[in-house]
Design brief:
heterodimer, A: mainly alpha, about 90% helix, globular, B: mainly alpha, flat
Chain lengths: ~130, ~140
């Protein structure tokens, strides 16, 4: 039973952080290149634009959900399972989500990279 | 362009280290106000700013592997500054991450076309490819 809770927690973490990453990435694409904007309108205006972006706020909320579900999941399962599983599955999930929702061209090179990094993170965090 | 990429990746790595140490601290001494937590929070914010900056000009699937270099840096810091034992399995992990980052670093940084709000056309891949080629 505890297994179900642990993997359920991992699933929630992964979903929340993938949603958060996608929303944050979309928000920053809407704001545009920060360096160029900085030169044009000044740093504080850029920060204001980012903070006013609804995708950004939703993304930060999703990240907070991910963080707190991590805390919950850690109370249900071992850190040596939860941390690497959540981190590496997030990489894989992000590659899928970026392709579907952000229309990024995830070619073979990037798939291999995502898998390598996911494996490496699982080994390091484990 | 490449200098900017390298610069921002490096700062990513550095900030990620701070990020992770914050997590550790929170696990160990939650809700204790000590200077380490404050430093951790500042580093976390700095990491977040650098991350947002990178996302403003690069793909998510480009930025994410790059931020994972932070794990590698953390392991190296643990090895050489804290004199921790780094197991062979972790060295393999480091090698995998480095290899993965090398793979994306060789490709274009941006493939999706920017400045579109919820683009719906499913055939954007070819458009994106030409946009990537222009860079």
């Amino acid at each position: 039973m505890n297994h179900v809770y642990t993997w359920g927690g991992i699933l929630i973490i992964v979903i929340a952080s993938v949603v958060g990453d996608i929303l944050l990435a979309r928000a920053m694409k809407q704001v545009g290149d920060v360096h160029a904007q900085w030169r044009r309108v000044g740093l504080w205006n850029v920060i204001g634009r980012v903070l006013a972006n609804s995708n950004f706020l939703l993304g930060v909320t999703a990240m907070a959900v991910a963080f707190f579900s991590l805390l919950f999941a850690l109370s249900w399962g071992d850190v040596s399972l939860v941390a690497p599983a959540a981190a590496s599955l997030t990489f894989i999930g992000n590659a899928f989500a970026a392709k579907i929702f952000l229309h990024e061209k995830v070619d073979r090179r990037r798939w291999i990279a995502a898998l390598l990094v996911a494996g490496g993170v699982a080994l390091l965090a484990g | 362009m490449f200098a900017a990429a390298g610069d921002s990746m490096l700062s990513h790595g550095m900030k990620q280290t701070g990020n992770i140490s914050l997590h550790h601290l929170q696990g160990v001494i939650l809700a204790v106000l000590n200077p380490w937590v404050a430093v951790g929070i500042v580093l976390l914010l700095a990491f977040f700013a650098a991350y947002m900056n990178a996302l403003s000009w690069a793909d998510l699937t480009y930025v994410l592997p790059a931020t994972s270099l932070g794990y590698v840096l953390l392991a190296l810091v643990a090895k050489f500054l804290l004199h921790e034992q780094v197991s062979p399995l972790r060295w393999i992990g480091i090698a995998l991450i480095s290899g993965g980052v090398g793979f994306v670093a060789g490709g274009p940084a941006l493939t999706s076309h920017a400045h579109h709000d919820a683009a719906r056309e499913p055939e954007s891949a070819s458009v994106a490819a030409s946009a990537g080629a222009e860079r």
